[in-house]
Amino acid sequence: MASVASNDSVPLAGIEQHSIDWVPLAERHGKPSNVGAIWFVGSLNLTGLATGVVTLSMGASLVWTVIATVLGSLFGTFFMAFHSAQGPQLGLPQLVQSRPQFGYLGAAVTVWVFALVNYVGFNTSDALLSGQAMNLLTGMPNWLGYVLAAMVATVIALFGYDWIHRLNRWLTWPFVVVTAAITVAALFGGGLPDGVWDAGPLDLAPFMLVFVFVAGFQLGWAPYVSDYSRYLRPDVPVRSTFWWTYLPSAISGIWVFVLGAVVSASAPKGTDPVTALKLSADRLFSGFGTIAVVVLLVGLLSIMAINQYGGSLTMISIVDSFRPVKPTRNIRVVTIGIMLVSVGTVSTIVGIDQFNWFYAHVVVVLTYLFIPWTAINLVDFFFVRRGQYVVKEIFNPQGIYGRWGWRGNLAYVIGLICMAPFMVITDVFVGPVADALGGVDCSIFVGLPVAGGLYWLFARSLDLATERRMVREEGLLAPLH
C-alpha cells in the first residue's frame, strides 16, 4: 500500500517531498488567499491568449464571442472552484480523491481517459506556443525553443508546491501591468477593422461552441485544482477556498480570453496567436510586442510547470493503482521527464501551423470527458459523503472503496452516452440532436445533471454509517464546514 505519509528524507534544497500521499497536519501551511495568485496568473499567458484567438475563429461576431466567453468562463469556473475547496479537507491530490467514487482500479481508468490526456494535450499546446515565441524572439528552431522552455518548467515542477505558489505571487502585479498595456494597445491601437463592434444577429450554434470551449478550458483545471490547496489546514472554510479560486480565475480568464479575441480581430486571418500578439502590442509603441511576448512566455513557463507537476502526480497515481509505489522524489523526477519527452514528441508531430485546429479539438473533447466526472466527484464530496473519507482506505486496493466502483463508473458511462447526441466536435462529429438544433451544442447541460443525479441515486445503497465510524476512528479529517 502506498504510504499515507511519505517517509522520504529531510527536504533537499526546498524540493517538495510529497506526491500522491496524504499531507500530514504538521506540514499544513498557508492561507486561502495564497491560491488566488495561482489561479489569477494561471490564465495570463500565451495559452490563455490563444484560447481567445481560437474562440473568434468559431464563427460568431466579436461581440457575441465576448458575451459567450464571459458566460462560459463564469459557468466553468464555478465547478472548478468547488474542486479546489476539496484540497484542504482531504490533503490529497485531486485525482486520488476519485477512488472512493470509481474504485481503486476504476479511478486509474478514469485517469487514463481524461487526466493524462488533459496534461499531454494542454502541455502540447503550451509547447507549440513556447517554441513559436522563442522562434519569434531569437530565430531559434521551434523544437529547440520548446526544449529550453520545458527545461525551466521542469525545474519549477520538480521543486513543487511551494515554489509554484511563490513564483505566481511574484508574477501577479508585473503581469497585471503588462496585460493592461496590451489591452490598451489592442483596443485603441487602431488595428481593429471598421464595424467590428457591430453585434449582428445571434447565431446560437457558434455562440454555444464558444461557451462550451471556454467553460471547458476552465473545467480543464478541475483534475488538478485541489493539488494547489491540499497543504492548507482542514479547518479552512469551503467558501474561503472557493472564492479565492473562483474570482481570480474567472476574472483573469475573462480578461485574457476577450483580449485574445480582440487581438485576433486585428490580425490577418490565419495568424498564429504569438505573432498576432506581437503585431497588436507593437501598435502601442515599437518594441512593446517583444516585451509582451516575453512576459506572456514567462507566464507560460509557470503553467507548463503546473501541467508537468500535475502530469507527474497523475502517472504516479496510475502506477500506484496497479503496483503500489513509494511516493519519493525519484519517481517524481522520472515521471516529469516522461512528460517532457512525450509532449515534445506530440508537439513536433502537430506543428505550429495546426495549432488552432489541434487546440480547439483537444479542449472540446476534454470538456465532454470532464463533465460527467466533475458532477460525480462533487456530488460525492458535498452531498453523499460530505467530505468524510477514510484516508488509509483510499490507498488500500482491497479496502472499503473497492477495486471497481460500479456507482461512479456506471453513472459516468451513462452520462457520457446521454451527452453524445448533443455534442458538436466541429468537423469531426455532430450528434443527431445537435444537428436537428442547427449545430447547437447543449451537451454540457445534459451531462452534469444526468451523471450527478444517477450517482446520487446509486449512492443511496452505500453504508455511510460504517464509513463515518471508520473516519472518526482514523481521526485524520475534520467535519466539512
Describe what you observe in this structure.
It is a single chain. With 481 residues, this protein is mostly helical. The chain has one domain (30-369): Hydantoin permease, CATH 1.10.4160.10. Helix content is 66%, strand content 1%. It has 19 helices and 2 strands. A two-stranded antiparallel sheet has the order 1-2. Mean pLDDT is 86; it is low at 1-13.
Q: Main β-sheet: number of strands, strand sense, barrel status?
A: 2 strands, antiparallel
CATH superfamily: Hydantoin permease
Oligomer: single chain
> What is the CATH third-level topology name?
Hydantoin permease
- In terms of per-residue confidence, which ranges show pLDDT below 50 for 5 or more consecutive residues? 1-13
What class do helices, strands and sheet pairing give? mainly alpha
Which overall shape is indicated by the principal axes computed on the Cα atoms? globular
**Radius of gyration computed on alpha carbons:** 22 Å
Average predicted local confidence, pLDDT: 86
Termini Cα gap:
30 Å
User: How much helical structure, as a percent, in the residues?
Assistant: 55-70%
Name the CATH class.
Answer: Mainly Alpha
Tally of separate helices: 19
User: Beta-sheet strand percentage?
Assistant: under 5%
Strand order of the largest sheet: 1-2
